[in-house]
Amino acid sequence: MKSKQLNEIISRENIDDIFKVISTNEIGVESTFDDIKGSEYFALLKYLIRNGFIDETYADYMTYFYETSLSRVDKTFLRSITDRRAKEYTFKLDNPSRIIDRLRLVDFAQEEILNFDLFQHLLKSNNISNSLQIFLNHLKNTKDFKFVGQFFDTKREVSNFVKYLNTEWPEMLSNAIKESNLTDKQIRLYSIYTFYYSDENNIRIIDEEKALSDYISKCADYLDIESPDIQKLIHGLRLLKISFVRIDNAKLELLEAVYSNCLYEINFDNLKLMLKKFYPVNEDEEIHHKNYTLVLSQPDSHLANYVNGNIDKYVDVILSNSNGKINDEESVALRILNNETIKLDQKESYLKLLQTSITSIVDVGDKDLWILLLKNNLVKYTEENIIEYFGYRESLDDNLISLINKDMSKLDFRRIKNNYDEEKVEKFFNASLVSNELFNYKYREILTTLDYKLNNLNIVGIPEEKLCILIQEDILEMHVENLLFLRKHYPNQVLDFIEKNLKEYVNLIAYDDFKIDELLEVLSWNVEDNIKLRLLEFTSDSISIVEKGYSTQVIKYILSNNFDSNDYYYLFSTYEEWDDEIKQLIEELAVKLEELSVAIADTKNVSKKLLEKLITSKELEDNIKIDIFISSFPNLDKETCKGYLDLLGFKKFIKLFEERSRPQFEKNEVNSKLLDAFKQRNWISDYQDNINKAGYYKVIRKT
Known about the structure:
By secondary structure, this protein is an all-alpha fold. Helix content is 53%, strand content 2%. Strands 3-5-4 form a 3-stranded antiparallel sheet, covered by helices on one side. A two-stranded antiparallel ribbon has the order 1-2. It is rod-shaped and about 225 Å long. The relative contact order is 0.02.
């Protein structure tokens, strides 16, 4: 019905009812319009209305004929202000300018003044009029976000609306953000227009509580703006020091401006975005594990400069997003480790994740990091790194030992030894010398290639296998002090030490330092006889030659100077095995033996030739020869016995072996001994005094 003209509503059927209308005012007084109905022109009026010649706008139409007249609509709006009965904001005004002229300034502070047409007209001025100022302050004082939001959506006079409202009510946007008095869309667009139309000072005032900058920084799609005024936006963003936490759906040209002005927070999402948009990077794996390497691949880029200017924060980001490992290039890793801005605990965390080896430990300026470098196996296996780390720690700590032991590569310090202070190298040698934890083959490599000698050993507790290395590699020099120290603390290694340094040992040994047991060991070695003979000169103690395998020269010396009387039995039985010189010595020793006959009696298998030599010896008295002969009886056969009897001049006794012979023997001590020997040998039964011939023995043969 509201969309139809009045004449379209009237019909033959309802015309009478329509013109019988009754109106009731606010106090209940009814008006039947009888004065009009009673007019002689009422019928004409009905005709004009029914045929559309006049309608409800008739009063407005009449105002065209009077310059200062208000339309009915405008009068209605003015009446609503005076009656304090507000119209809707969208109430259409015909001539806002004339309405304003009829309003008092005080009227602009009333809520009924709120009208879009009127407000739009006020905003068209190039500056803030008193009326507009009061209007805006009314919005501010009443916090009328409803009117602000709805008018903003009409997009009328946007530039002045934003500029003037921000001037008079700078807190509006911050309050709207904090209390959600406007929609997200309105807030976002209004903030953009604020950058477009408000001056720097006003923008700063608006963001005094940082609500706007915080909102923008957290708004991920803020940069998704159609046809943005990039220059004004970036100027405003820089003014508020905006740092976007996350960026989604940004227009590329605006993103480029944000990137070049570093208006984003350094976090992993933003780093990933910038690397993918402005670097040729597509692999997420590399972004996680080689982030700083990628950033520095364009060292003069905005990203590289931004990161380097905020390196401590950046390091925290990559540490948290490396997925357990970092594969930065060595030069890049060194930039992290040598950056004084980065805190020590950050560097330590970085090293725990780093997989890249450092070629030279001295390239890491902060020596406090060296320990962690070694602990995490991040140092290349080189002699230089070992020496440098040792110089820093002045000890072979667990980390350095682990580094040395971990690699099969052969160490050779000769190449670099002269590059370092001799005192440092010598300290390293001494520390290595007493390190029980070093693998033996590494122990050998270090000490041999450092090429130092140990001339005064005074260290207790070196494992025997390591001491063997010192001896084998000629590191431990042969000195009396070292020898005495080994005897006391490392007795099991003394002989190895002597054998390795035998000539030196022989040259330095003195009577006070001589030990017989060392001599006995040397005698068993396959070394030159003159060495053995020189050592033999230090002692007159008896030395056995039994089953020793000594050379003839050594045996001759021993038999001549160190004869062991217990060796008689061995010599008597092996006489025929020796050369003539030794035989001669054996004979001489036998001749000198006081109890020679006893020794022969106690010796099994006495050499027959030796007996023959002794029996015929001019050095022995006859009685001794007889005793020797008798002592050998248990081991003699008849033929041998005959031979010895012949040599001794007892040919008569040979007849005892002849069955038909009846020899008689003069009674004396010698014959008595011989007959006793024959009897014990069971070659005769007995002997007795011969009753037929006084002074003789009679032999009783075996039956």
